[in-house]
Input
Amino acid sequence: MLLSFCFMSVQGQDLDSLTYTGDSMAMPLPVLRYSQKQLYVPGALLVAGMSTFFNKKEGLKNELAEFRQNHFSSFRTQIDNYLQFSPLMATYALEGLGIPAKTDFANQTALMIKSEGLMLGVTYLLKSSVREQRPDGSNDMSFPSGHTAQAFMAATFLSQEYGYRYKWLPYAAYSLASGTGLLRMANNKHYICDVFVGAAVGILSVKLAYWTHHYKWGKHRAR
Output
């Protein structure tokens, strides 16, 4: 699946776009700089999402929904309601354990709030404008997937703060986010296009928050 393939590319792009400040006692602090190639993965997800959104009845969007109905019609789980927040919880758990993040706590929290605000705002705007009916017919707020947007926002945030220290962590974070998207489809709450676009919204919300942040509260400033 494209989600599982794309998340492996995100961390490499992030590391290429980091510069390092010298004001940390523990290790150099990376500052995220804008780079066009950081748009490749979310851009690919947007293209995939929009192309499948406009599929005809026999297209991938409806074929996957039909496959779920034919083979997993009784599947139900609530795990996705909690899994979407797990990378975000991990970020603050590591902070609580005293493991230095990329930015100080005040700036980190400001970045998280900005990222959440952007993600929630864009997701709500799209949901209320598009009015796509969910596969299970429960309402018309299917596009895009809010759970997936939240999960990928959290995964990207964790990767930005701790990916430079633990190179394996982004792979785990994006795996959890991809799992959230898959579970939303397995629960018959979303089409694949909803998941693709939700993932793109989540990633881009964090990128934009970092690109525009001025680090006003702590000593970890962009240069």
